[in-house]
Amino acid sequence: MNAPTPSGTPADTPIGPLPGPLVGSAWLASRLGTPGLVVLDASVGAHRGSAQRIPGALAFDIDGPLSDHTGPLPHTMPTADRFTEEMRRLGVDDADTVVVYDVAGVYSSPRAWWMLRAMGFDRVAVLDGGLPAWVAAGLPLQGGPPGASARDGSFTARPRPGLLVGSDEVVAALDDPAAVVLDARSRERFSGTAPEPRPGLRGGHMPGAVNLPFTELQRDGGLMRSPSELRAAFAALAGDRERLVFSCGSGVTACVLALGAELAGRGGLSVYDGSWSEWGLPVSGLPVVAG
What pTM was estimated for this model as a whole? Predict the structure, then answer.
């Protein structure tokens, strides 16, 4: 009997082992409909509830129940119990393989990937290029909004500390010579020369943070850059520092950086859950610099 993978599925299932945290359209298309494979659309904003989707895909609704709506910040992680409930509602079992994608390309799907990882589930990958790459490959689509799973799953969240962090951990990382905070927002927002899309937030960045817009980790067609290119990008900004903390506007595109760092072979990765939606609040008392 083969040894189980980290999430408990033997490598000799019809799906086989994941090639990594990123899979291509051909890999997914050849396995679509295989028992034990769950495809989730993690689109947000205007792309949420798209009229076209990969056949059989269900909605991983980051704007809806898969964020914590008990507080004032957008897109923060729900409780483990709530996450378990939503994954079971989507029919996800502990032994399943999950592929997440989004309509924009590789934008919000890494947030779903990172959330599942933070909740102890490893057999999850992001579809490279998302729905645009799927369409460009001439693969089939299903119309209408996503339906509901025919059955409840057995998923149980097993939270891992350190993958999602708060402002105290970010403050500590900014003062730690072995750590670096990487901000995925645009260069204009990082410098404070462009306004924040959420009203009431200060412009600028954390003192000591460095800017790596998430789009710079992608090539034409919204596909992720090669591992060697990603290694070079992180080496240029993080050197050999052991810990990388990622931030953005609301904790979504920070996870694109986490995906890129994972593909580059970096370790010690964390995402600031509140990101600039918390740090940039005037009442936060957290330091901001511009320029």
Answer: 0.95
